[in-house]
Amino acid sequence: RTGFVAIVGRPNVGKSTLLNRLIGQKISIVSRKAQTTRHRVTGIRSDEDAQFVFVDTPGFQTRHRNALNRTMNRSVTQALADVDVVFFVIEAGRFTEDDRKVLELLPEDAKVVLVINKIDRLKDKARLLPFIDEVRSLREFTEIVPLSAERGANVDALVRATVALL
Ligand code: GDP
Ligand code: MG
């Protein structure tokens, strides 16, 4: 089985870090600076039971309506059109207006996995459940996986959940 997965989210949530972690290579540029990934970056992962094609997207640009941002958004929309699963990546404990705008752009019928990244930064773990409830009230998610892309924590759970969706 081959699964096509788009990784979406506002800039800086850790999409490129996650892609690198998923494929075990530094294929996508990771930066503190937003908008480092201007083009779609694709990575392939082959496991015994499944193969994945991951597409790291430039963050949806929700602030300025200029030509470059429009082109980038179109690129993300195209990436979404023909994938099996969408990873919607956000930061643990922090759901912003930009996150909400990206969420609104996801097709209604898409299988969306809510990836709550940077859990290593969440000092008070008791905040995680109410945070999940808050985000879950905005849309139905096929799966919800908290993880740390940087440290690799729980990334295997994301892979297992995705295989189950193919
Ligand atoms: P992108 O814009 O969504 O592709 O985000 P990047 O992958 O470029 O990451 C943005 C910043 O967040 C970088 O400084 C990363 O090192 C950092 N980052 C990514 N994942 C994690 C994580 O799991 N934990 C922490 N603490 N930082 C992370
Ligand atoms: Mg990136």
TrEMBL record:
UniProt-annotated stretches for the region G1: 9-16
Region G2, annotated ranges: 35-39
Protein's cellular compartments: Cytoplasm; Cell membrane
Every Era-type G domain range: 1-166
Highest taxon above the source species: Bacteria
Membrane topology of this protein: Peripheral membrane protein
Transmembrane segments annotated in the record for this chain: none
GO BP annotations, alphabetical order: ribosomal small subunit assembly
A Gene Ontology molecular function term of the record: ribosomal small subunit binding
Residues that bind GTP: 9-16, 56-60, 117-120
Biological function: An essential GTPase that binds both GDP and GTP, with rapid nucleotide exchange. Plays a role in 16S rRNA processing and 30S ribosomal subunit biogenesis and possibly also in cell cycle regulation and energy metabolism.
Protein name, per record: GTPase Era
Organism whose genome encodes this protein: Pseudazoarcus pumilus
Part of the whole protein covered: 14 to 179 of 303
